[in-house]
Each structure stands twice: as structure tokens, then as C-alpha cells.
Amino acid sequence: xxxCSSSDEDIITEQNFNPExxxxxxxxxxxxxxxxxxxxxxGESFPNDNxxxxxxxxxxxxxxxxxxxxxxxxxxVAWTGDFLPMVTMGQISYRDFHNKDNEIPLIAGDPQxxxxxxxxxxxxxxxxxxxxxxxxxxxGPSWGPLPLELGRYNGLYMDGQEVLLSYTAQNTDIYEKxxxxxxxxxxxxxxxxxxxxxxxxxxxxxxEVANGTNSEVSGxxxxxxxxxxxxxxxxxxxxxxxxxxxxxxxxxxxxxxxLSAADSNVNFTVVLWKGPAGEVEQFDQLLAQAxxxxxxxxxxxxxxxxxxxxxxxxxxxxxxxxxYVIDRLTLPIPNPWKRNVxxxxxxxxxxxxxxxxxxxxxxxxxDGIDDELESLEWKRYASGLYEPQSIEVVxxxxxxxxxxxxxxxxxxxxxxxxxxxxxFSSLMEQSIETREWASGMVVAPDGTFYVSKFGxxxxxxxxxxxxxxxxxxxxxxxxxxxVEISPDGRxxxxxxxxxRGPYLGINPETGxxxxxDQQGHYMPSTPIxxxxxxxxxxxxxxxxxxxxxxxxxxxxxxPHSVDRSGTGQVxxxxxxxxxxxxxxxxxxxxxxxxxxxxxxxxxxxxxxxVSFIKGNYPAPTMKGDISPADGQLYVAGFxxxxxxxxxxxxxxxxxxTGQESLLPQDFSVRDGGVxxxxxxxxxxxxxxxxxNYRVKRWNYQRSEEYGSGHYKLDGSPGxxxxxxxxxxxxxxxxxxxxAIPDIREVMQMEVSYDLQxxxxxxxxxxxxxxxxxxxEPEFLADSFxxxxxxxxxxxxxxxxxxxxxxxxxxxxxxKTLFQRTGCFACHSTDGTTxxxxxxxxxxxxxxxxxxxxxxxxxxxxxxLRQSILEPGEQVVEGYEGEMPSFLGILSDSEINSIxxxxxxxxx
Length: 907
Description:
Elements: E1 3-6, E2 9-12, E3 32-38, E4 51-61, E5 64-69, E6 74-80, H1 89-92, E7 110-114, E8 121-122, E9 151-159, E10 162-169, E11 172-183, E12 186-195, E13 202-208, E14 212-218, E15 221-226, E16 232-239, E17 245-250, E18 254-259, E19 266-276, H2 282-289, H3 296-300, E20 311-313, E21 324-328, E22 343-348, E23 354-358, E24 363-367, E25 376-382, E26 390-394, E27 397-402, E28 405-410, E29 420-425, E30 438-443, E31 449-453, E32 481-485, E33 492-497, E34 503-506, E35 513-516, E36 526-531, E37 535-536, E38 556-558, E39 566-571, E40 584-588, E41 593-601, E42 606-613, E43 623-626, E44 633-638, E45 649-656, E46 664-670, E47 673-678, H4 684-688, E48 693-698, E49 720-722, E50 726-729, E51 735-739, E52 746-756, E53 762-771, H5 789-792, H6 811-820, H7 823-826, E54 848-850, E55 856-858, H8 861-869, H9 892-906
Helix pairs in contact: 6-9
């Protein structure tokens, strides 16, 4: 870190992601985190179906904790001793930045109280069954919140170390203050309630004792004895005077507190304790200590500011060397709380301040964003969220999407810290599968929210979901979907399905939804979609319908070597971004960077293409927003999975300098060739020289294998090199029509060009696009005069396709190919594995490899060749098999060169 004095603040000018300077994930003065908990194997006295994908893990003090299940409105488990282990993906990578060996948290301390998979509140006649719809796979558990008529979690109020839970059960509003009391080292849990005028009888599921053998209810106390010796007892008591509330034990197993209907508020406190039957007399002392009142004003008026300090940073402006450059807004790390800051999304307020959300579940506000970025002021606003990846500021209100759902964060007393974590919507089910990410959220002009969720990828710890098809587990009803949520958050519906791992964008003026997806099983490469309601995109495990509909083609595919991991899209609704104004920008995690997306509409279809926006991208680019002040694009992202970047996280600005852009401005593909149009005049000689163009095309194959090789149109492996017959400059000298025979629908085409502007500047780039429809060109309308397709392609049938001239096999060539195809992003050559999803190449050749099935093999030349062409056949133990095939992409000579290079780094 380099810092200088600015009044009484140090200004951070360089980010410092030093794990030794980052405090543990759980902060001692924050009362909760949101996580998952697997409590199915706590012992014979506890229910064995107890699994909670959305858990408010409450830190009650005195080393006592409780998991409140926001889906089922129940205390799924309460325990003492140690807190949960920090093993979810966001937690385990928090200080070990590229650690992906995540697990599902298990109770680390001593479990005391639990309930099973049934509602925490029920009607007068409780039924201890799960009322939710069955999971997509009948062998899996149900997921998601209760039906709205049975209950809804409304949110959490926070005041210092205390929290107040707000929810509705059986159409009755309930407020609950959890706590703990202790005497002589013995602890009991407390649950203090205000039930607003229950219009009907209600019952609270207080505890379940699976091995209960005897029970008794005496006045305001119920006891359930456990085991044959009955030497352990679970005790439930009502503190104070509780008219209209009675305890009941059903079947020596289920303890409930039953409320009569009332026309006024009912206030009561339940105290829960487990211990030796011979020490039960201590319970009276614990009962006497319990608080029996809730002061709602204490919470609803907001608590004291939690984080009063601010952090000041200074950004780094890029020199104006191109039309678009990348400025860096330095993140607030280090900070007074020694908190890691891995930003994933940003959204602006009307005053040009911004809100950023981090993967660890924090929310930061940043002010001072101006042209020079000299004084950025950062302030913490909220924490405790569950692996969020999206934030939207709507009417200057903050909404965050994580695994818990969409949270509306509110500062009730305007002191700069969130006091109320309102549940805007949790109707989009969340399974406990770790890869069912809450990946995207956008808001339409009419207030409709759209969220995207990953499918339950068959990676990470296996918990409760059975296998579905290759690469997928059953997951929830909304896995692998884009979900439409009404403006009030109370209605949810599938918008589009069949994704593997979608990320979102939206046109803020038209409401058109866009998406990308992750290459993998049933997803052959990176696509960009223009999404319509009801679309299906090809992954059977996440179709959520039967029979399977026709697959909707993407706007465009992008090759694996160009963008192996697409993330969000941003529509530039600004007139200050030059040629990007009004256009879509696609963001890449793996490359990383940004692509300009161009759309070609025919009378029957839309098709698109992308051109890379060159720049110095320090970290993955994932999500972004347009500033209302300067109209520039601001993008956040962080590194965890395989990426070409070497920075853990960044917040950057794509800034238009006013210089002339050399990116293509428009394109169309028509019978007879491809038209590219630029924003500057082209050198005529260079534009008409067919040697300056290289054109290829290929298809992908959608299958259960991870990704896809490249295939010619006849289905054989490989790419077709297309001849360029001629090239023609438009009348305004800004467009070129490249005459190419046999234009047909194809999944992928690539045009590479080496041109010059009329004033001699180099204009070289690649352009990738998809052909969904071919129609006749309109040369006059496109300023190409009287060109005629038949004349352009005269003799085309007699032409032979140009062939690549193979270079000789060499390790040096293999090194170039290893870099060009993106292998180095997943495989190191120096023995390191940090940030890599595949094994290192150092020492690989000739070594013994232990495979996933327990067998072993020698890494000889044949093994390396098969790993390149059929990577799913021999996956090394400890890895997920996330490598696509290079069949049809690399020639035999190129594969042999890569093998020779691997030999050199194995010595």
C-alpha cells in the first residue's frame, strides 16, 4: 500500500489483498451470518431430515447460537460451544483466495434443540409434515419457502448485537426476539414473541425429541425425557404470565406452544433447555431470567450506526491512448475492520454515489466518483448476506440478490447503516447444492425483477440431491432458470429455462432481457441470448417442463478460446460513450474483459457478433452499471475460478476518451458474404486486398460431454477455412463487403482482418458471430452501389477451400498454442495450483496419475493426447473435469507441439 496524508485520513492508492491482514470471516460484533446448515446427523435424539439451505445463523451471546430457517419459519437447530465452521465457498475462499474445496456447514458445537422439516408455525391442529411441493426429483427433499398462505419471512431488524425477526404465519404478523439466559454456566435459549391479534388458533413448533420415551406437562413447563434410562431431558417453559398460551407434547416427541385466537396482541416467551434429568431444577432459575417483552420501537426506529469510519482511496487514471481505456477505482482494502473486499456488482444512486456488493456478503457505499477519481470515500453499509452476486438501486433503494433471495436493505434512521434487512422476495427456491448460485438480477422499467440461478452443477460436496443427468444434480424447481418476479415480490414464475449457469443483462429502456451461459455439459460454448418468455436453451436437467421444447438459438456463440466464461451484459443507456452509446456490452470472467455486441436483424431472425474492447483489465469483469453523471460504464468483478487475471478483485471504469474508435460499428451477414462497417474511413488498397482477410466457420455439438469440439457442416471434426473471393469498399469508405461463397446457417464464424485507416493507422482485429438466417443483401441501401451476388461469386463451385499451411512440430510452437488456447488460465507450468481449476503441467510428463475412479495411469504422450481430445475420459483425482474437448480445434501437428511443450516443463 502506498498512502499519503489527506487531513486526518490516509488515502489508499493501491489495493493490498494480503491474507495475513484479513481478519476471520465472522466478525465478533456482528450478530448473524446467512448460510446453509446440514443438521441431519446430530444424534439419536434429533430429527434426521434436518437440512436448511437458507439459515440465519444467529449469534446470541454466551457461546449460544441458533439457526432460523427463513423458508420454514422454524428454529432448525440451536447449539452451544463453537460456532459453525466457515466452509461455504464464500467463506473458505475469503482468506485463501482461490480455495474451492467448499463444504456444507455442520454444527461445530453441542446441539441442544432442533425441529424437523415442517413449518415452525401451524394452525390449531399441527401437522409435522412438509407442505411444500415435492422436489424435481422425488428422491430429493423439497426446497423453498412455505406457500404464502401458510407463512412468509418478512425480514430482520438489527439493533447493536440484538436482532428482531419479522414474519407472517397463518396470516398473522409475528415478531420474534431470540436470546439466551444462563445461570451457573448452564444456558437456555429464549424466544420472545409479539403475535399481532391472532384471528385464529396457532401452534409454535418449539422442539422435537426423536428418541423421547416419556413426557409431562405441568403448568407452564413441558418435559420430554430421552432414551431408555430417561436420564436426559428437554424442557420447554413459558416465562411470566401467559394467558391464552399452553404447552403440549405430542407422541413424546413434538413440543408445541398453542395460542388461542385473540383480538389483541399476544406476548409470550418460550425458554428451551436440554440437560441431565437430575439437574432440571435449574430450569426455574433460567425461566425467571427470561425477558418477556419486545419493544418494537427500539428496533423499528433503527439502531446505532455500526460502522462509523470511512475509508479513502484514490483511483488510477489510464492514459488516453485509445478510444476506450480502463480506469481503476481503488478498493477499500486494507480497512479498519480488516475485511476482504471482493466486489462483484455495482449500482448507482441518482447523486452518482454507488453501492457495491461483495461475494462475502458485505455492502459498501462509495462517494466522490468524478472525472479524476482523486478522493473516493467508502463506507460499510450492511453485512451477513449469503454469497450475493447482484445489486440494483431502484428509486434510490438498495436490493441485493443472494442465496437467501432478494433483500431490500433499509436505513431506518438515516445514520448510514442498514437497520432492516427486508425480505423483498425469496420465492425463487434455493437448494442446498453449493453450485446453485444466485447469479444475476436486473430490474425492468415496469418494476419487474428478473433473477437468474445456476443449475445444481454436479460439483462440490454431495448432500441430499440425487444425480439428475451428466453434470447435474436435481436441485430446485428454479435451478438453471431466469425467474420473473412481480414488482411487489409476491409472485414468481419461470421466464426462461434450460440454462447451465446464466448471467443477466437488461435494456433499461425497452426491458429486453439478455443472458449468457457457462460452457459445460450440454452447453458447447459461451452464448449470448436475447431472451423471450418461455424460451428453452438446451440443458434437459433444468428444462422444468415435459416434453422438452425446441431449443432457442443464441444471438451469438463465442469460442472457448475467446471467452470461456461469460457473465453479465450492460446496455449503454448513455450518449457519452461514443460509438458504444446505445449498444450492448458483454462481460467476460475468464478472458477477462468486455465485448461490444452487434445485432444483425433479418426478416426472420436476429443474429449477433462480438468484437473485443481492448484494455488493461486487472480482474474478472462480471457486473456493471452506467453512471448517471459521466455516462461511463463501471464494472466490478473478483477472481476465484480460472481466469487470465492476476488481481483478486477490481472496480473499473470503461471511459470514452473522445478518440476515434477502431471497433466495428455494424455488421450483417447475407447471401454472398459479410459486411463490416467502421466509424472511420478505410484505406482502399488494404480494404480490397483479399489477403487481409481470414474467414473460418464451424458448428458445435451439444452433448453430455463438457463443452464441445469444432465440427464442419458435414459433421466431421474440424473447421472450414472459407475462401474470400473479393472485398469491396462502400461509397463512404467506411464499410467493406467480404465476398464469401456458400453462406449458410452455422453456429460460429470468425473473420480476422488486417486493414488500415485512410490516414495509415493499423486496424486489425477478430470478429466472431453466428448465422441464424441468410437473406439477400441490399447493396444499394448499404452504400455498395450495384454489386451483384452472382457476379461476386461467379465460379464459386469450382473453387477449392484454402488450406492452412502447417508449421513444424516444436515445443516453442506448443508454448504459443498453450497460451493462445487459454490452457495457462487453468493449468500452471510452475507447480502452483492457486487460482487454477486443473493440475499443473510441471513434472506431469512421465508421472503416475491417480484418477477419480481410483485407478492410475502414466502421463505419456498418448495420455496427453487423450486428455486434449477426450478430457472427460481420465479425470485426475481431486478435480471436477471442467475441460472441453479440443477435437476439431487443434490439428495433430498442434497437439503434438503442445505435448512437446509439456515435456519441457516436466523436466
